[in-house]
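User: I'm putting together a small comparison set for a docking exercise, and I want a reference complex before I start. The sequence is below, and the ligand is dinuclear copper ion. Could you produce the 3D structure with the ligand included, as structure tokens?
Assistant: Of course. I'll restate your input first, then give the structure tokens for the complex.
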Amino acid sequence: MTAASEHAGDAAARVERRWGTISVAIIVLLVAMATYAGIHQAVMPQPRVETADPRTLHIAGEFIESNLGSALEPDGSVTVRAIGQQYSFTPQCIVVPADTPITFRATSADVVHGFLIEHTNVNAMLVPGYISTATTRFATPSERTVPCHEFCGAGHQGMWGRVRVIEKAAFATLAAGQRRLSCVAQ
Ligand code: CUA
């Protein structure tokens, strides 16, 4: 072996050790992050468990009938409040603007129902006693169906709602005249 090639061998070994150290460090970091996240999640209470008494939904609070439907918030987003009951949703037709952050808040008045808006990430269970939330955005005006996808009794297969996505400007016009919007009876 010449001096030059010995030198090259040393250099290669040094580089190899350095990269070896870096890859071990990356693995250690990832394991530490996963451990921290796992322990953190296990020791903290669930961040947001919101409750709503199904026996008094219609009497007081967020889910009284006059408060159901779509509300335009001061920040321009829209909050939709809805309930599921055997065998319909209230409102049965939800109207929302396109290209706007939409937050759904829903619960059940009786048994477990499903709330799935086709072609979106919204897929929730409506559990009596608890408020389910989901956030989405609809790119363009469209009509979506909302099947109840949890078996809820004899009329389950007939439990369908609708979401009507309309132009942002049209929604703003409607919202100027009403506190809560829906497209029931339209
Ligand atoms: Cu409600 Cu199935």
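The radius of gyration is 26 Å. The longest helix spans residues 3-43.
User: Thanks, that's exactly what I needed.
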